[in-house]
Design goal:
The structure is a single chain. By secondary structure, the chain is α+β, with helices and mostly antiparallel strands. It is built from 11 helices and 8 strands. Helix 5 packs antiparallel against helix 6.
């Protein structure tokens, strides 16, 4: 899926050591107009091998090695993202950017994903993240601008600019729920986008899905305003500080989704399918991180299924 049937080596012939001292890699990184704290590098496939794209060359893939941050478990982050993206796609049918793991010359896992905003002729689809859609900038809202807002703002914007807004809002709702249950606490405004591939805008495939709680403590949701302002909290939320199914039902009603469609989505997450266990077990996380991943998502499910 990732390489459209082409046989490609999963082994890179280079490493990311000394990355900040390497001017070629710095230039490659600066040419990639995708924001985020994690280092990302533009890449292409040539004669069955993955290489970094040259200056001025349009990359068709993105490489994400373990980030250079002061976290003890940082080298597990590529495997975490790969696992979480695969669960979203394979278990819940969420459209995601095609992805895999490859390995540096020293054997370190590197996350690789295909750019869904690049056409086969190497021109680009029109794409805009929701920080841009909502006019959130660092100049106007400070350095944490991408966390400034709530999820109903995104849903309202989808309803305004997307012709098939009901379908896309349901996709968005499902993704917000997935992020909560799989502890992606960095699901900010720039991690949701609109893309125009068929003459009209729709929600872009999901990307940057990661169980962040496995590495860092944070809030249950990525936006400071939560699901929506003035949303009546469930008794469970008032009692424990954590969202349950009732809160998502009220959020769905707030953003205009029919109750029957909402119930179908919510029911998907009431139990974890066996396939989730299988994917965690076969992932590239080490054994300790596998146990931690399961413990975190099981705790989230217990919060979610509580009644009032």
């Amino acid at each position: 899926m990732l390489f459209n049937g082409e046989k490609v080596s999963p082994f890179l012939d280079f490493d990311f050591d000394g990355i900040h001292a390497n001017s070629d890699l710095q230039e490659n990184q600066s040419n990639l107009s995708i924001s985020g704290a994690q280092e990302k590098y533009s890449a292409v496939v040539e004669r069955g091998h993955i290489r970094l794209s040259n200056p001025g060359e349009q990359g068709t893939f993105i490489l994400k090695p373990a980030p250079l941050i002061n976290i003890q478990t940082r080298k597990q982050i590529p495997a975490n993202e790969h696992l979480t993206m695969q669960i979203a796609s394979q278990v819940y049918g969420i459209e995601t950017a095609a992805n895999a793991l490859c390995f540096s010359a020293k054997g370190q896992p590197v996350y690789i994903t295909r750019r869904f905003d690049v056409k086969p002729d190497l021109t680009k689809y029109s794409m805009e993240d929701f920080a841009s859609v909502l006019g959130k900038t660092e100049q106007g809202f400070g350095s944490n601008f991408k966390y400034d807002g709530h999820y109903a703002m995104i849903a309202d914007a989808i309803r305004t600019v997307v012709p098939a807004w009901m379908v896309e809002t349901e996709r968005f709702f499902k993704l917000v729920l997935f992020n909560y249950l799989y502890a992606n606490e960095d699901a900010h405004l720039k991690n949701f986008s609109l893309i125009n591939r068929n003459g009209e805008y729709a929600l872009a495939p999901a990307y940057d899905l990661l169980n962040t709680r496995l590495h860092l403590e944070g809030d249950d949701l990525g936006l400071k305003g939560g699901l929506a302002p003035n949303l009546e909290p469930s008794d469970a939320l008032l009692r424990t500080g954590h969202l349950c199914r009732t809160d998502f039902e009220r959020f769905a009603q707030r953003i205009g989704l029919p109750a029957k469609r909402v119930e179908r989505v919510l029911n998907l997450f009431m139990k974890f399918p066996l396939m989730v266990n299988d994917l965690i077990a076969s992932s590239f996380l080490n054994d300790k991180m596998k146990r931690g991943y399961w413990r975190i998502i099981n705790q989230r499910r217990q919060w979610f299924v509580r009644s009032e």
